[in-house]
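Comment thread on ticket #2218

A.B. wrote:
> Attaching the input chain for the structure job we discussed in standup.
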Amino acid sequence: MHGIHHVTAIAGSPNANLKFYTRGLGLRLVKKTVNFDDPGTYHFYFGDERGSPGTILTFFPWEHAAPGHNGVGLTQTTAFRVPLESFEFWVRRLNELGVKHDAPVERFGDKVLTFRDPDGMSLALVGVAGAEAEDSWSNGPIVAEHAIRGFHGVTLKLEEAAPTGAILTDVLGFENRGHDEGHVRFKAQSTIGGIVDIHVARENLAGRMGRGSVHHVAFRAKDDAEQRQMVKKLVVDHRLAATEQKDRNYFRSVYFREPGGILFEIATDEPGFAVDEPLEKLGTDLKLPAFLEPRRKELEEVLPHLELAR
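C.D. wrote:
> Ran it. Output below, let me know if you need it in another format.
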C-alpha cells in the first residue's frame, strides 16, 4: 500500500511542540526518542493509536533554531483528514486555542482550513466525507467523532511539476489526478496519507529551512524488498542518487533529493512502533537505540525537561 509514511519537521521549544500536538490537536505521542544523528535533541512522533503509516508527524525540536521561510523547494503545507461533519468543530477549536487560521477554501472539491503551529509550520485540516469510519486516537482531549484521522497529504511548492511528478508516479506509486488553481494532484492507493499536491510557483522566492519547516517527507515501502526495487528504479531510470539504508528502529530508510530539491525518504512499514514498548504504553518512556543506550544517563541530563505528563 503506497502513500506517505511520515512527515518530519523542525520545531523550537519541545514543550510547546508537545503541548500543541497532544493537547491542542489531540494526537497521540507515539514515540519519545532522540535524533539518532544528533542525540542531544528529542525526536517526537505523533500519530494515531498504533502509530500507523500515514498518520505520523515527527519533530526535531531544536530550541534555538532560526525561523524558516516557506518558499519554492520546500514542503508548503501538511494536511490532516477530519470528518466533514467535524469541520465547524475544528474552526471553533482553533478559535478557542487562539490559533490564527485562514478562511476556509475549497480545493479539489474538499473543504480546507489552513493554519500554523507555534513555530509557524503551515498545517491544514481537510473535511472528508466518510472519514469518521477511519481509525484515530480518541484517548485524548478530542472525542472520537471529531478526532484527526491521519494525513490527507502534503503540498510541495516547486517551480515545475513534471520532474517531481515522474518520481511520484514511476517510483513511489502515485497517479496524476489533474489540476486545480495552480495545483497538480497525485494520488496513491492508500486512503490515509494518499495525496501529494504540487503547487507550481515559478515566480516565488526559494524557501529557507528552519524552525517551522518540513525537513523531509517519507513514503511507504511494504518491506526491504520493495524498498530495494524502488531505489533501483530511482537510480537506474531517473539517475538520482540514494543513501544507503539506515535503521531507524521503527522503520528502515533511504533518502534522496527529488528533482526540485526536497528531501524524500522511502521508509518500510515494518517493524512499527510497538517493537520496543507495548501498544498501551507507546510514548511513555524515553526510548534509545541500542548504540545510544550506554549513554542514557548522559543524554537524560542534557535533554530539556518536559513539563507535560502523559
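A.B. wrote:
> Thanks. Noting for the ticket: The chain has a mean pLDDT of 96.
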